[in-house]
Amino acid sequence: MRLFLLTTLTMIAFASNSVLNRLALASGDMQADTFGTIRLVSGAAILSILVLWQKRGFAIGGWARLAAVLALLAYIFGFSAAYAELAPGFGALILFSVVQVTMFAGAVLSQDDVPRQRWLGAGLALAGLAWLLWPSGNLTFSWPHIAAMAFAGAGWGVYSLLGRGAKDPLQATAMNFLLAAPVAAVVLLAGGGIGALPVMSVAWAVLSGAVMSGLGYALWYHILPMLGATRAAVAQLTVPVIALAGGWAFLGEALSLRFAMASVLIMAGVLVSLRQR
Hints:
Keywords: Membrane, Transmembrane, Transmembrane helix
Subcellular location: Membrane
Pfam families: EamA (PF00892)
Order of helices and strands: HHHHHHHHHHH
Number of domains: 1
Protein name: Carboxylate/amino acid/amine transporter
Membrane topology: Multi-pass membrane protein
Structural class: mainly alpha
Strand content: under 5%
Helix content: over 70%
């Protein structure tokens, strides 16, 4: 039960990032790279304070740390760039489909035990997600933004796979953010800087970085060893459902019977995947 509650809390934090990202970019006065940089700097700040307060110390780490930092940068900026254009549902479908494929591939390559019920649960959840989010009608797609979201999904999948080996989740997440934030800041300044920004857009970016990302990702690294790669991949398929509920509550997005029925299918798949053999 404790693992279920912690996983639910983490998924809510992940979904909140989608809502906060859309809120911050909705006015058009903040660019995606600015949002991503503020998000990283805010996360690095709050995590550093926690590491210092708990006297854990800082450890640079080796090549695995470099891989985690690059994966985090790929996710943060691909995610922000894609949501500047893509419809929320379609973007979420791309993101979490790629995440699931990446994490299942990582589990297979590392020879993890993937029981049949987990494949069944993953299939049910992904089918429900596709039914819920697949666009209908005559729509045109922005392929550069689709590619950005797929890039973000691969980045997040790799970041999650690397997190399974973290001995100190808080310290590992803090170092990932601390090393990624300066890189993001340099890239942003090289591109022309920030300029004037709406106060509320900055507030959404700080909230996304400090709480939903910094603390949320530390919690994610904490529970990943208990979940394993495949169960973690399936659990994340609940995020678009939660994000759409948040969009309805905070952005006025419409809900439908299709939403309710597909949500039941997704949750059924997640429960099948997470139950013991």
